[in-house]
């Protein structure tokens, strides 16, 4: 693989992660706004709390997006396990009481 190809792959990967982060920010902002709107008009809505439904639906979509970007293996795969073991060993070495 040439340097240019490696650079393009790295750039594409960064764009994927950036897209996920933008999606997560929009999720938080939009759902916060929906929650405020719902709670501000609660009496007019006969006390119905409806903002939870778009929160759940969009949350599922966001999780699927995250899995498509990072994949299951990146979350719980062998590399993740090795990093967690190393982190725990480092913690134990720095804190003898652990």
Automatic annotation (TrEMBL):
GO terms for molecular function: kinase activity. Pfam families: 2TM (PF13239). Residues 8-89 form the 2TM domain. InterPro entries: 2TM_dom. The chain crosses the membrane at residues 20-42, 48-77. Keywords: Kinase, Membrane, Transferase, Transmembrane, Transmembrane helix. This is Histidine kinase. The lineage of its organism: Bacteria, Pseudomonadati, Caldisericota/Cryosericota group, Candidatus Cryosericota, Candidatus Cryosericia.
